[in-house]
Amino acid sequence: MEYIDYVQWPAMLATVISAWFIGSQRAYRRMVAFWGFILSNALWVIWGLHADAYALIILECLLLGMNARGFKKNFEGHRQS
């Protein structure tokens, strides 16, 4: 197994931890979740390039856009409070 194959494990861990934090009532924890999701998106794209998993790469790019949107909405809501 090549070392790049191990990238999928921290990507999976970042995704699961972020999913846990996204449900928090606290805006700070949700911000941590969005950063975690962005990290996991990047890791999945890196692994997807290695594995020639183009559907996964497209999915992660789309999810990155959604995460950026959620990050912005959470940030704006946090500033107004």
Provide an overview of this structure.
There is one protein chain. By secondary structure, this protein is mostly helical. The protein contains three helices and no strands. Helix 1 (8-22) packs antiparallel against helix 2 and helix 2 (27-51) packs antiparallel against helix 3. It is elongated. The model has no long low-confidence stretch (mean pLDDT 91).
Topology:
Layout: H1 8-22, H2 27-51, H3 54-80
Helix pairs in contact: 1-2, 2-3
> How many individual helices?
3
SSE succession: HHH
Give me the oligomer status. Answer: single chain
Biggest sheet record: none
Structural class: mainly alpha
Global shape: elongated
Rg measurement, Å: 14 Å
Low-confidence stretches: none
In percent, how helical is the residue content? over 70%
Q: Approximately what portion of the residues adopt beta-strand conformation?
A: under 5%
N-to-C CA distance:
49 Å
What does the average pLDDT come to?
Answer: 91
| Strand runs, count | 0
